[in-house]
Design brief:
Helix content is 9%, strand content 44%. It has 617 residues and is mostly beta strands.
């Protein structure tokens, strides 16, 4: 399937070039044609897919040709391309069927493309127009289950869907929900502008007082020339600043082709939060033929706190679908060893130290991953196809953004108590805040955990699944059986403070840039020795939490310094087991446990009692 995708993506690019050479302007909602994927309902049914051309730019232009990349499958047939003023459905034999009101043309795929030159070109009116295509899936397969070629993105009007079963009751724009856009491409004639650009999106900007900064904007090409430079102005607090900017790479001469750029801002000697209006005045040194402006916010602060995202993974060795998350964390750690911060909470296995009742979030299934406690994410695929590693793009989109607060931490072994780790967090905020409700929390995390007995085997549902045969990092699981042995687990949470932010750890009245500190201690002698395998592989994650929303403001990771001699011996001696007993689910003591799940209760030499869930296979 991967080879087929590459083939029709290559054909799509060729079709685009040919359309350009044939004259006119092409339009598609797809911004990155090298990063397209497929979408589908996994059902044998009829699909109707559409986009809407509603921007004022389109009014008066004539649609002369339409092309769409399609999957290569004998199970997908009966293609048609159509135009309609409205998306309407009519009842036929008790089913709601698409009913275009301008024109419909039956087409046969060639080289994984459907394309037509309209015998009757259509001129777009002020009401706009829907451009769509339909087809029938007659049977399911690994290809026909996902028969719609899409790009990545969220744009209004970019991905209307109706199907005969799954989405049968009405048309709906699914672009925002699925973060996908249709790959339909339209050729337009008439009224071309040579040098025209608009601001399609603009991020709020934050700069440090006295230092130059930048504002991130998405510039969309609305002209027939590629864009190599822009002239822009921005108005702030009644004063207008004018600048020019050379793009590192030109924006291609495709209508709607949008590229994010960082436009420089001047240094300011004052602080505060302001509205800023940015205007694109020139394109390629000429007056912009489609003047565009957008208003956003600019914050000027004495400190510039940059956000470090926190990934929290909820997993278990008994969970056959959890290996994909295991691999996702491994790949991210390889790519960003210094910046990627994750905490893995294990449930119902040998690494379950923090019980679910003490987790910072509740989950309904496994694996579940949260980014900054604000949204559920797939730590393997991100927004890409499920078998393609792509979470790095999601993570990078959050890393380095402005944060209201920053946290740093240091951790050291206590010289007088060899098994105690003392942690101190230091927090600063970008502005004065009254009635604040922030808190810091701490997680003791272990890397390099492994074991040889059955309690350390990872259940695996990916063995022999061809979908993951070539997936990055999935080799051990694709080639593995129902259990994979010998894995090494990182990011494992083995102890924690109150994880939703310790009450009183940050004052309710905050002064801008002032340092606030809070200290906490862990005693590893009270932790199950199964997860204290190498004290050099322990570290502490400090998390600055918005306690009202239970979301992560910022986080940091610190390794443990000033390691005293005798720590390993102290841990070993204090953690020596002097008695051990197993209990079944009813609480009955079991002297010779068989296969099943048990609570293992151990009494240590130091008097501490530990209870751990174990699985005997």
């Amino acid at each position: 399937m991967k080879r087929n995708l590459l083939l029709f993506f290559a054909m799509f690019l060729c079709a685009f070039v040919n359309a350009q050479e044939g004259g006119g302007t092409t339009f598609t909602y797809v911004e990155d044609k090298d990063n397209m994927t497929t979408w589908g309902t996994k059902q044998a049914e009829t699909y109707d897919v559409a986009i809407k051309l509603a921007d004022s730019y389109f009014v008066g232009k004539t649609i002369t040709a339409i092309s769409v990349p399609v999957v290569s499958s004998s199970k997908v047939t009966e293609y048609s391309i159509w135009l309609s003023k409205k998306l309407t459905l009519k009842s036929v034999s008790g089913k709601k069927v698409n009913s275009p009101d301008i024109q419909t043309v039956s087409v046969t795929p060639e080289n994984d493309m459907i394309q037509i030159t309209l015998a009757e070109p259509y001129t777009i009116t002020e009401d706009g127009v829907f451009v769509g295509y339909s087809f029938k899936v007659k049977g399911t397969s690994s290809v026909s289950n996902y028969p719609v070629i899409v790009g990545l993105g969220k744009k209004a009007g970019a991905f209307y869907i109706h199907t005969s079963q799954t989405y049968s009751t009405s048309w709906s724009d699914r672009s925002q929900t699925y973060e996908r856009v249709s790959a339909i491409e339209v050729t337009l004639q008439g009224g071309e502008r040579a040098n025209a650009a608009t601001i399609s999106e603009m991020e709020d900007a934050c700069v440090k007082v006295g230092e130059a900064g930048f504002v991130d904007v998405a510039i969309a090409n609305h002209g027939s020339n590629a864009i190599s430079s822009v002239g822009y102005s921005y108005t702030l607090d009644g004063k207008t600043y004018t600048k020019d900017y050379e793009l590192s790479e030109p924006i291609a001469a495709e209508f709607g082709k949008s590229v994010w750029v960082s436009l420089p801002l001047d240094a300011f000697d004052f602080k505060g939060e302001y509205e800023m209006t940015l205007s694109l005045d020139k394109v390629n040194g000429e007056t912009n033929e489609e003047p565009s402006s957008m208003t956003g916010k600019l914050g000027i602060y004495s400190i510039l706190a940059k956000h470090v995202p926190l990934v929290e993974e909820f997993t278990g060795l008994w969970c056959g679908y959890c290996p994909i998350a295991y691999v996702g964390l491994k790949e991210m750690s390889k790519l960003y060893p210094d910046d990627f911060i994750a905490v893995a909470y294990h449930y119902n296995d040998v690494m379950e130290i923090i019980y679910s009742s003490n987790w910072p979030l509740s989950v309904s299934g496994f694996p579940t991953s949260y980014l900054d406690r604000s949204k559920i994410v797939d730590v393997y695929s991100g927004n890409d196809s499920k078998n393609v590693f792509g979470f790095d793009k999601v993570w990078k989109s959050e890393f380095g953004k402005f944060a209201m607060g920053v946290v740093s931490a240091e951790a050291n072994w206590n010289d007088n108590k060899p098994t105690q780790i003392d942690v101190k967090a230091t927090m600063q905020f970008a502005q004065n805040i009254s009635k604040a409700n922030y808190g810091v929390s701490f997680v003791l995390v272990a890397d390099g955990l492994t074991g040889t007995d059955a309690n350390w085997w990872q259940t695996n549902y990916y063995g022999g699944d061809v979908t993951y045969k070539d997936s990055r990092g999935m080799e051990d699981f694709y080639n593995g059986g129902p259990y994979v042995k010998g894995l090494v687990f990182d990011h494992v949470a083995i102890a924690g403070s109150y994880l939703a932010g310790i009450a009183g750890s940050v004052p309710s009245t905050i002064e801008e840039a002032k340092e606030y500190t809070y200290s906490y201690s862990f005693d590893i002698s009270t932790i199950n020795k199964a997860v204290i395998q190498d004290t050099d592989k322990l570290h502490v994650v400090a998390v600055l939490v918005d306690r009202d929303a239970n979301t992560v403001v910022n986080c940091c990771r610190t390794h443990i310094g000033k390691s005293s001699s005798g720590i390993e011996a102290a841990v070993a001696n204090d953690a020596e087991v002097i008695s051990e007993m197993y209990y079944d689910a009813t609480g009955r003591a079991v002297s010779n446990p068989g296969n099943g799940i048990y609570l293992k209760k151990q009494v240590l030499k130091n008097g501490t009692t530990t209870t751990t869930k174990v699985v005997i296979k």
